[in-house]
Amino acid sequence: MLLSLMSDPTSLVGFLLAIIIGLTVHEFAHAWAAYRLGDYTAKYAGRLNLNPAKHFDFMGTIFLLLAGFGWGKPVPVNPNALKGRFDEFKVAIAGPLSNIIIAFIFFIPYLYFKNILGIDAYHNMFVKIIEIIIAINLLLAAFNIIPIPPLDGSKILRAIAPYSWRMQINNLERSGPMLLFLLIFLEFTGIRILFPIIHGLVNVFEVILSSIIMLFFDMISFFVSLFLF
Fold first, then answer.
1. Is 131 tagged catalytic?
2. Mean of per-residue pLDDT scores for the chain
3. 152-190: per-residue pLDDT in tens?
4. Is the Cα torsion angle 75, 78, 79, 84 positive or negative in sign?
5. Sign of the dihedral through C-alpha 53, 147, 175, 94
6. What are the residue ranges of helices labelled H in 112-151?
7. Which of 27, 88, 131, 187 is catalytic?
8. How many domains does the chain have?
9. How far apart are CA 57 and CA 71, in angstroms?
10. Strands, E assignment, the chain
């Protein structure tokens, strides 16, 4: 992936913008959600801001460059400071949800250019950059909701799972990072386990977002036609 980016300046610019926006907002969203729910740990750690340097993880960025999916520096959260039954869930889901929202925002001009004006990423640099930002943010969302520690999905699972599952989930916390790195290593050897899951989730996100936006465009066209004719 890195070699293809280096040979295409437009893709490189789009990728850099995507990871700067995606990782920064993702980690900030965790910090903001925790802060709003009464946990000031991330704020005191300097993570409640939109400075990209505060949120980048070296290994997570390397994997983004090499494999196309990765992660930011984990935001410190104190579960004991969270009071509500589903507060941990809200903090965990905030990161992936922020990436889906970013993708949704960029999907609007992308579908307008592509489906209404007929301008695609192959013929327009601006549309190509938007396409990459959408793709990377959906990849970040899909990868991070996989329920393997230390990804957000494991925290989401722990927050919504019955209390009787807590011990097994906590045990997975210790072996989860090794399992995740094993799955990533298998991707490089050609044994695809993670990628089909991530790709499937991205496709679901794309269908949902594009359907919502195209419905919105159709509604606008309908109301415009009522006034013009």
1. no
2. 86
3. 999 898 888 887 777 777 777 788 888 888 988 888 788
4. negative
5. positive
6. 125-144
7. 27
8. 1
9. 7
10. none
Q: Which DSSP letter does residue 47 get?
A: -
CA distances 12 to 18, 128, 142, 223, Å, are 10, 11, 22, 40
- Which amino acid is located at 45 in the chain? A
Cα torsion through 9, 11, 12, 18, rounded to 10: 150
Which tokens belong to 14?
């789009």
Among 11-15, 112-116, 165-169, the range with the most confident prediction by mean pLDDT is 11-15
**Please, which residues have CB within 8 angstroms of residue 186's CB and are 6 or more apart in sequence?**
192, 193, 194
Domain that residue 154 falls in? 2-228
Q: For the whole prediction, is pTM greater than 0.85?
A: yes
Nearest-CA neighbor of 140 among 128, 155, 152? Answer: 152
Tokens matching residue 125: 């640099």
User: Distance between CA atoms of 108 and 134, rounded to whole angstroms?
Assistant: 10
Question: Within 13 Å, how many C-alpha atoms sit on residue 111's CB side?
Answer: 18
At 149, list the tokens: 């520690």
